[in-house]
Amino acid sequence: MKTTNQFYAVLFVLLMAPATFFAQDEKEAPRPQYMTMTTMHWNMDMEDFDMDEWKSVEKEYLDKVTVKNEHVAASSFYLHQLTPDNRELVYVRVYNTWADIEKAQKRNGELEEEGWPDEDARNAYMKKRNTYYSSYHTDEIFATLPLVKLVQDASKDMICYVRTSHLAFPDDGDDDEIKKVMTDDFNKMIKDNPLIKGYYPHRHAWGSDGREIMEAYFLDSMTDLDAVFKGLGDALEKAYPDEADRKKRDEVLRKYFTGVHGDAIYKFVAGLSK
Questions:
Q1: Which of 22-31, 62-71, 182-191, 201-210 is the least confident region?
Q2: Which of 1, 143, 249, 273 would staple 205 via disulfide (CB 3.0–4.6 Å)?
Q3: Is the per-residue pLDDT at 49 higher than 50?
Q4: Containing H/E element for 206?
């Protein structure tokens, strides 16, 4: 029988396993390990808000700073679709190492000066950019997990369904037991599902709740997401045709997860991603 500490050790191994973010060629893609998630809020007092203008402003920063920052492996924006707060938008950046998070911040400052060499022009741009957002935001850091299905085409907006689950940390936790179920689920129900264009699991590294594991599913439309949900029962029976195997799978999941989860749906903004 393995101890809780051994189970934590296995999760640490999963945390450190590299996973690729958006990429056309997995062999040539960077292998980020850490992801910062900044949840911002729109400035609701901005009377002349225009979505296209906002995209143009952020695209300028993307081109002049983020794309040129060698410490940022990937970045993307996500807009509220079905979440508890319609004001929120999420800004995600991915890094190869923890140290790159700090290095990227310093490099951003250097690239901002290069991109807007005139100080007045730079200050004017930053002021304009900041007017789109309220002063309140939250930051968390997540570590990528290895079971990844890469998005092959990030050139168009997509639906991003995010499921947040919570680990239970059983005293008799067995790494092989939970890894097998998670790997089987991925291989049998996610990897070859044509409606799921991408799948990125990640778990807490720094933030408010150390139990969290998030799974991000990328789909072309809400219709496709609905189809995935409606087909879950059939997909589960196809993946585990023996009822005893399905029961064992459910028992393992109940052992390692609390059963409490949250759901959110965002829109991935294609033109603002690195």
A1: 22-31
A2: 143
A3: yes
A4: strand 198-206
Q: Which residue type does 17 have?
A: A
Burial of 43 (0-12, 13-18, 19+ CB in 10 A): middle
Tokens of 260: 């409490």
Which pLDDT band holds residue 248 (cuts at 50, 70, 90)? very high
**Ranges assigned E (strand) in 61-189:** 74-82, 88-95, 133-144, 158-167
Kindly report each contact of residues 59-65 with a partner whose C-beta sits within 8 Å and lies 24 or more positions away, as own/partner.
59/271, 59/272, 60/125, 61/129, 62/272, 62/274, 64/111, 64/112, 64/114, 64/115, 64/116, 65/108, 65/111, 65/112, 65/115
Q: In this predicted structure, what is the pLDDT of residue 11?
A: 41
Rounded Cα–Cα distance for residues 104 and 38 (Å): 15
Question: Which tokens in the block code for residue 186?
Answer: 């991925």
**CA 109 – CA 122 distance, rounded (Å):** 11
Whether 71 contacts 120, CB under 8 Å? no
Whether pTM exceeds 0.70: yes
CA 19 to chain centroid: 12
Find where tokens 């396993």 sit: 17
Q: What is the 3-state secondary structure (H, E, C) of 106-160?
A: HHHHHHHHHHCCCHHHHHHHHHHHHCCEEEEEEEEEEEECCCCECCCCCCCCEEE
Residue identified by tokens 């044509």 is: 194
Dihedral, CA atoms, 89, 94, 226, 146, nearest 10 degrees? -150
- The structure tokens listed for 96 are 């190869």
